[in-house]
Amino acid sequence: MPRPIRVAIVGAGPAGIYAADALMKSDAAQEPGVSIDLFERMPAPFGLIRYGVAPDHPRIKGIVTALHQVLDKPQLRLFGNVDYPADITLDELHSFYDAVVFSTGAMADRALDIPGSELDGSYGAADFVSWYDGHPDVPRTWPLEAEKVAVLGVGNVALDVARILAKTADELLPTDIPANVHAGLAQNKAVEVHVFGRRGPAQAKFSPMELRELDHSPTIEVIVNPEDIDYDEGSISTRRGNKQADMVASTLENWAIRDVGDRPHKLFLHFFESPQEIVGADGRVVGLRTERTELDGTGNVRGTGNVTDWDVQAVYRAVGYYSDELPKLPFDPASGTVPNRAGRVLAADDSHQTAVYVTGWIKRGPVGLIGHTKGDANETVACLLDDHANGRLPGAELPEPEAVTAFLEQRGVRYTTWDGWHRLDAHERALGEAEGRERIKVVERESMLRASGA
What we know:
Layout (H helix, E strand, L loop, with lengths): L4 E6 L3 H12 L8 E7 L7 H4 L6 H4 L1 H9 L4 E5 L9 H7 L2 E4 L5 E2 L12 E3 H8 L15 E5 L3 H11 L12 H8 L5 E5 L11 H6 L6 E5 L8 H9 L1 H15 L7 E6 L2 E9 L2 E12 L5 E10 L3 E4 L3 E2 L17 E2 L2 E3 L5 E7 L2 H4 L8 H17 L12 H10 L6 H16 L11 H8 L2
Parallel strand pairs: 1-2, 1-4, 2-3, 4-18, 6-14, 7-8, 7-14, 8-10, 9-10
Antiparallel strand pairs: 5-15, 11-12, 12-13, 16-17, 17-18
Helix pairs in contact: 1-13, 6-7, 10-11, 15-16
């Protein structure tokens, strides 16, 4: 009887877990069967959901329930706190598995090439998200002295950053916010947050629900300038063909015509303002310079030459995520992805790199919602199984599955397991229960390892 197909998946966020799910739901799971090991550099699984989703989005974090059901399957093992390639290399993975799938996501900030980006007080949104989500590898404090703040970008990450900056710390207490983050936000001096988009309301990349949630806080007054509500033929076509874009534009229109209320924190959504320079003095941010834009008929914009200087003391750049380059794999620095064809990694000569695949943001770039990674996973897994069925995987004899465990232990890697996650989960819930909260997230890596029984 043939042995199960052995697959390593590097990255235990939604993309990697969806790939494992697709494998376990495939015909191959019945015959010859599949055996999957998930390698994750964090001590805990779930990737973006744990370290990239704002703490006041329990609805999105609820996706963890579905991912739990996948990780509970007996065909799957989790090895957390294992770094690629420091703890295990691609050649070593090939020695244990028939195929390797990379689902390492994107956690860095895409660069914004305007003067002043390097100033003190100019921050990458991804770095701020990592801080308020309790990522173990970032500093425990964050400078929050600015009273007026700019956020550049009109995607959901920009909304998250603006909302966290505008809310009070106590509004976030019902969430799993770590103690150090609550203490930091309690000292936050921001009373004005300005979000800037280069194009118009019809081109904003907000999700309708995320946008409306801005207005739910009793301390945040959301303000839209009526002059920023403008559409051309391209914008109207976008609204007609995209229900979400139409809902976003309708919400912004309603906010633009209402009277400004008296909530203490003001959150301004600006459109048709293209950032030109982060203005500095003595090495620190003292303002933002934008150029007014106008629609050109196609939904795109052109500059008008009219420049505005905004009085802000901090700028958060939320213009996109960027993936880390992976050793032994090709990399396209322009897109921040691994060159691939339907998930098969491409070698320099455009041939398929044997038994190596990608899925999620490292495959297609950091666009779309979490659910979109399911389609990526299905496509990639279909290619992997097709390669197996047609003899394009090496098909070599492999050591027993326990050999990986022995290898990591011999190397001195303090790995965590799925049972370890359950222990950490229970520990975080116990911390929360003591303060009347559902959970308090543990931040320090060593504390996570101890709680997991690594």
